Amino acid sequence: MQIKKSGGKVFGAVLTAAEKKAMELEINRQIAEADKRYIDDIDAMVLYTLRVYLGFGPKRLRKFWDALSTEHDRLIQHYQMPDDYTWLCKEMLKHIGVDIEAWNRERREPDEAEKH
Question: Is residue 61 within 8 Å of residue 51, measured between CB atoms?
């Protein structure tokens, strides 16, 4: 690794190819670890919302969850994107006019406006 300095202050670094690969592997490991840690919480939130707003019962919730898990695994295997399958899901939804990132920005904008 080469450290970039100017005026005695560090402002960056140039990594070797091996260091970049090691960093990417570690980042992906941490993402996978976080995914495992939060999957139950995310699944519970989605299933609860389906129950409350659409009246799904236990059988229908299980059917949805099975389909969600199967599609998740299928996307990872088919596109070989273990660390970025959510990007693909977002792009596929955009093809039918659903931009989840824009929807989330809309929800946050009133909060952001209050801070200023």
Answer: yes
